[in-house]
Structure prediction request, 172 residues.
Amino acid sequence: MQIIRCLTLVVIAALATGCSSFTRESGQTLPRDASWGVAPLVNYAQAPQAGERAEQILISILAEQGVRPLMYPQPPRQDLLLQDDRERQIQALDWARQQRLAYVITGSVEEWQYKNGLDGEPAVGVSLQVLEPATGRVVWSSSGARAGWSRESLAGAAQKVLRELVGNLDFE
Prediction:
């Protein structure tokens, strides 16, 4: 009976952790009260505007950590649909240098979808970097991916991935 309980716990633990994958780069401790900005997340996923969706979730999670970043100025809606994400990212870093921001969080969305099949579980993959705009130096980076459960929303899965990534930042 004891063996069955132990095996059950091992299986439950494997299932719970088997749905996520994260890398973590140990970087320097970053000041929470520095001037922060959020630059566009490049969308490599097939879902339209996945980067913009992830940015909005990222801003709220940073606020939970006591970081209140400036958001780069959004281009007009019609330009947003036509403009390349990498070009928007470059323009946002120029903007961050002009604003004399100490740090900018940027990155990419690799996956943002509901998987095909009966369950249709959400799948999210995101990479984040913290840059010093003045030098362009990457001071921290991390990436994570998660496949959620069939009844979980895509935004909920994304929130868990981004919360884990931001949680890996060392703030003073």
The chain has one domain: 20-167. DSSP finds five helices and six strands in the chain.
